[in-house]
Structures are given as C-alpha cells and as structure tokens.
C-alpha cells in the first residue's frame, strides 16, 4: 500500500475514533432530529460555492504576487497559483498539516519555475500564515472571553494571546531572516553517517533558496501590505464558509462571530497535531467548541462531519487530479520550447 493512501487511512481512522469519543462523552447523533431542524435558505445555499471560491482565489492571488517577484514567475497566473495552493491543501492532508501544504505548493510551482524559487515562495507563504495568526489569535481569544464562551479572565487572555502572537512573529522572522541558523541545522542533520553523501547538495540547496527568499524580503511596502490583506481575507473566507453552511441549513440561535473565532482557534491548534490534517483532534475539539458556542446537540456531530469533508477530505479527491494536470502542462510547455532552444 502506498504511503499517501496509508496516511489517508490513518487520518480516517483517527477521525472515526474522535467522532466515537464525542458520542461516548455525551454528544448524540440522530439524523431524523437533525433533518427536522433544517430549513434550507436558498440565498445561503447559493452563497457557499462563491465563498469557497473566494478563499481559493485569494490563495492563488497570494502565490501570483510572490511568483511575480521573479522574472520567470510571471507565467504563474492567479489560476495557476490557485491550483498550486489546492495541491498544497492535498499535501497537508497526507502529511502533518503544519508543514505539509508547503510541499505540495512548492512541488507544483517547481514544474514551471526554478525549484529554489518555488521553495522560497512556499517558505514565504508559511510566514504570511504565521503573521495572520499572530493578530487573529488574540482577537479570537478576546471575542470568546467577551461572549463568555471561555472564562479565564482578560489578563490570562492577554497573556496567552499576545504571548502566542509574539512567538509566531518570532518564528516567522526566523524563517524569513534566520537563514544562517537554518543552514547550521541542515548541515548538522546531514552530518549523520548515512546522510553525509547528500550533505553538500542539501546545504547548497538551502543556501540558494535563502538567496531567493531574500528577493521576497525586498518587496515594496505596498506589495507586502497587499499580500497580508489578501492572506487575511483568504483565511476569513475559509472560516466563513462554515457559517454559510449553517446559514444555508437555517440553524437557529447561531452566533456567527463566536463560531468563526472558535473554529479559528481549533484550526490553528490543529497544526500542532501529529496526525495528517489534525485528524482526530480536529473533530473532537470542533465538537466541543460547537457545544460551547450553543449549537444544538442534534446538529453538532453532523456539522463536524460536513465541515471536515468540505475543509479536508474534499482536497484528497481533487489533489491527484491537479497534480496530474500540472505534470501534463509542464511537459507540454517543455516540448514547445525545445524547437526554439535549437
């Protein structure tokens, strides 16, 4: 059995175990009761696809802006950047989510541009996400405290929120500017006897990638601001998609602001889970959060399953298709350029 399939099955197993644990700890799953509460809102249902597409396009535009900093990156359109981001979501589904998206994003872009430049774009995308969570984490904590969904006191909220924000900014700075430290780590890892023959190649690749990252650091201030604004809107559209699902189903007593803040915290904390896509942790934590924000008991488990499919398993199905199309297009472009090179 191939590694990606094995990883997906492990994630599914953890997801099933988490749902079972939710049911054992007081949640209930009665499909007839859930369907009885549904009152389809046509406008809400029609808004779901546009909101999801808005998230995808924001990610694609982010990649396009980064790629445009390199001469050969001008061939990366918004649509191609969107496909790169979607393949990144697929790779996050078959690897630990905190790092997995970078692999898919970088691999896709390397089909059309230099591998070091593609890796630099993937690395800088992580920096952008860290900066987003640096400001959204304290905002989400203060919202949940103000709405009495958590009751730990504003001093502790401030300590956790701004302490976490400072940590993420430090990590973002280290990724973007700490190249010397990263090079030392790579050199040390590849000093192991069975990896020594790859050491110089790996070290050279890291150094070349750092040179490309330095190009991204020299972006103009307006471009940097545009990147962060686009990144922020992308994540907000992602979280808002669940709210649109709840709106489309006509769920009563739904605090949209609290749910958006709560799921932001769950998604952020799931990056630290060792399972692919935070499988197991994500379902259990989201179920408990839904209970805390007042979603009815008959709706919680179905909503967890629906949102898990839309935000995770859906990309497992489309990822291989995007990757295959990328390979075909890259091969066709190389074949077209061969006569010109002669």
Regions with little confidence, pLDDT below 50 for 5+ residues: 338-342
Radius of gyration: 22 Å
Strand content: under 5%
Question: Whole-number average pLDDT?
Answer: 79
Q: Report the strand count.
A: 0
Largest sheet: none
Q: How would the global form be characterised? A: globular
| N-to-C series of helices and strands | HHHHHHHHHHHHH
Helix content: over 70%
The N- to C-terminal Cα distance equals: 43 Å
What structural class is derived from the secondary structure elements? mainly alpha
User: With helices defined by DSSP (H or I, 4 residues minimum), what is the helix count?
Assistant: 13
Task: Tell me what you see in this structure.
The chain is mostly helical and 342 residues long. 80% of the residues lie in helices and 0% in strands. It is built from 13 helices and no strands. The protein has helices at residues 3-24, 31-37, 42-67, 78-93, 97-110, 115-146, 154-177, 179-189, 199-217, 221-249, 256-270, 281-292, 297-341. Helix 3 crosses helix 4 (78-93), helix 3 (42-67) packs across helix 6 (115-146) and helix 6 runs antiparallel to helix 7. The longest helix is centred in the last third of the chain and has 45 residues, at 297-341. The radius of gyration is 22 Å and the shape is globular. The chain starts with a helix and ends with a helix. Residues 338-342 have low confidence and may be disordered.
